[in-house]
């Protein structure tokens, strides 16, 4: 199969989904109201609550959720064949992720920009809220710790990416000042920012930077992890307009340019999908495609982390409620397009099937490196761009998205500690600085406590990320469904994805439980049980709430007819 066909069908389907299905969901189900006063206006404080241009906010939301995961998951899942990965990404984006993301923004916006955890307490109950927040905390802990490890690895493996990665921060700071203090037009700022960013990418191969192999007793990877968390802590304390928004926005533009280059190279080169459409000869030890496909590819099809961003930062910056369609649903389409690029790069970015098979010799192989090397191969052959520069471009793209996710993720983790402080009346925990230190401290504790001196502890619990993340997506859909039922609106469009996700996720948790038990990994075995028990109790609480609401509506209907 030629990759051009896969590209056109995938992008065409997602475009039609946005034009038609998102319009139906926005107008008939969520009924977005342009006159509704959003929390960004009601609680405007210039720090977290900031009414924002929908294009800038889209850039923040999209790049916050589109970290390394929509690259890693699809680039691993093609081991089962490119067709299952392709179908899940495309259909998941249209009918799952878009509905989930726009719905989370809408639900939070309608409830004073509360997080999904706090919102669960309002619409379901305090017990469900407590369990939900445990799941949220675990997801954020995994995302922050693992993405720091991924970024550190890429900075070590591709030293040509160091200057453009860190230089992008200074570009974002300047852009924030130009937009919010100098009031320069968005188009001018966008052009200047993109030119500066790509100038840095060109400078990267000329001036590669590597840390010493050992510094103060830490390896170069471990040192990058410490530096990254130091930066993320500072970034999470700054007003969103100063760094978070402009960095996410310019990264969003950079992604689309990167995707245009990659997709343009595919159209010009016309590479063949050398990987099998359905792989019937998977390596020994590869788990069953069902249910593992649906948790291996989370971001790019549907991801619970998106709901955290939607209710944590995005809803606090929503200028008009109708912007939720563009920001939420189209944000999901943007991530789906990145996941599609990862599939093509990891299957058509090899000269022969033998080359592909050598990389995918075991489950878990591929990932970011397959995307970078495969994508660079396509760009080099299709556009003639030197292979080293192409690798730098794609590495910077992956690192910048993982970095923006860390920025947002640590801010969200700080919100969790502050919410716990409010719930349990712990005054000091409600303050920004102590909550930020707790967020950073727990991540570093996992990184170095579980991973030793190399700081790779996040990878220890990474096997549970997919299931925990997809569970969170299902629980977010459950909260949205309860809200819709309470408002007397059709809930099938969230209920069907909800049921499917819960079935796949619980099945995957049980399957992993057997694997952890067989291997004697008691830490992950215990953590798996915690997540599974939390899921069962939350489902029970939400099911009870839905049953009660249905009964009340039936009784109301009977009273009206009598």
UniProtKB/TrEMBL annotation:
Belongs to the peptide transporter carbon starvation (CstA) (TC 2.A.114) family. InterPro entries: CstA, CstA_N. One of its GO terms (biological process) is cellular response to starvation. Its main location: membrane. One of its GO terms (cellular component) is plasma membrane. It holds the Pfam family CstA. The chain crosses the membrane at residues 6-26, 62-80, 86-109, 130-156, 162-180, 187-210, 222-244, 251-269, 289-314, 326-351, 393-412, 432-453, 459-485, 492-511, 523-543. This is Carbon starvation protein A. It is a multi-pass membrane protein. Signal peptide: none annotated. Residues 2-348, 364-508 form the CstA N-terminal domain. Keywords: Cell membrane, Membrane, Transmembrane, Transmembrane helix. It comes from Aliidiomarina soli. It is found in: Cell membrane.
């Amino acid at each position: 199969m030629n990759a051009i066909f896969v590209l056109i069908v995938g992008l065409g389907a997602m475009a039609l989904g946005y034009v038609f299905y998102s319009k139906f969901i926005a107008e008939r189900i969520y009924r977005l109201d342009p006159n509704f006063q959003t929390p960004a206006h009601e609680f405007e404080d210039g720090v977290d609550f900031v009414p924002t241009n929908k294009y800038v906010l889209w850039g923040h939301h999209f790049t916050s959720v589109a970290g390394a995961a929509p690259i890693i998951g699809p680039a691993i899942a093609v081991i089962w064949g490119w067709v299952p990965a392709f179908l899940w990404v495309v259909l998941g984006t249209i009918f799952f992720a878009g509905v989930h993301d726009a719905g989370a923004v809408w639900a939070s916006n309608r409830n004073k920009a509360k997080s999904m955890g706090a919102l669960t307490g309002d619409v379901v109950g305090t017990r469900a809220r407590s369990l939900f927040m445990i799941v949220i905390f675990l997801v954020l802990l995994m995302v922050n710790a693992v993405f720091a490890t991924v970024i550190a690895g890429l900075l070590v493996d591709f030293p040509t990416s160091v200057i453009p990665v860190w230089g992008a921060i200074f570009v974002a700071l300047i852009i924030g000042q130009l937009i919010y203090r100098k009031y320069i037009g968005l188009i001018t700022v966008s052009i200047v920012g993109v030119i500066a960013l790509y100038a840095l990418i060109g400078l990267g191969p000329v001036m590669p930077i590597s840390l010493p192999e050992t510094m103060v007793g830490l390896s170069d990877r471990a040192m990058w992890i410490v530096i990254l968390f130091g930066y993320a802590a500072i970034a999470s304390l700054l007003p969103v307009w100063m760094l978070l928004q402009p960095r996410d926005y310019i990264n969003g533009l950079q992604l689309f340019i990167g995707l245009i280059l990659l997709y343009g190279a595919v159209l010009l080169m016309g590479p063949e999908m050398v990987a099998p459409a359905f792989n019937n000869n998977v390596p020994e030890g590869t788990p069953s495609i069902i249910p593992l496909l649906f948790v291996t590819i989370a971001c790019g099809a549907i991801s619970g982390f998106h709901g955290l961003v939607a209710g944590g930062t995005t809803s606090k910056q929503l200028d008009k409620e109708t912007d939720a369609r563009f920001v939420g649903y189209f944000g999901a389409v943007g991530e789906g397009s990145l996941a599609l690029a990862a599939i093509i790069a990891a299957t058509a970015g090899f000269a022969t099937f033998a080359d592909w098979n050598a990389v995918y010799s075991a489950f878990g192989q591929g990932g970011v490196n397959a995307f970078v090397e495969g994508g660079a191969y396509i760009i080099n052959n299709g556009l003639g761009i030197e292979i080293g520069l192409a690798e730098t471009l794609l590495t910077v793209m992956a690192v910048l998205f993982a970095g923006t996710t860390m920025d947002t993720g640590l801010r969200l983790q700080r919100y969790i500690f502050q919410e716990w402080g409010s719930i349990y009346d712990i005054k000091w925990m409600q303050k920004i600085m102590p909550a930020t230190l707790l967020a950073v401290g727990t991540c570093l504790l996992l990184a170095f406590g579980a991973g030793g001196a190399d700081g790779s502890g996040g990878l220890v619990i990474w096997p549970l990320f997919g299931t925990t993340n997809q569970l969170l997506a299902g629980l977010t859909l459950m909260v949205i469904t309860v809200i819709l039922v309470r408002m007397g609106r059709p809930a099938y469009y969230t209920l069907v994805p909800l049921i499917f996700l819960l079935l796949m996720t619980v099945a995957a948790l049980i399957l992993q439980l057997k694997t952890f038990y067989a291997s004697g990994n008691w830490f992950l075995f215990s953590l798996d049980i915690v997540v599974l028990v939390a899921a069962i109790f939350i489902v029970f609480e939400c099911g009870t709430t839905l049953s009660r609401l249905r009964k009340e509506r039936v009784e109301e209907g009977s009273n009206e007819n009598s």
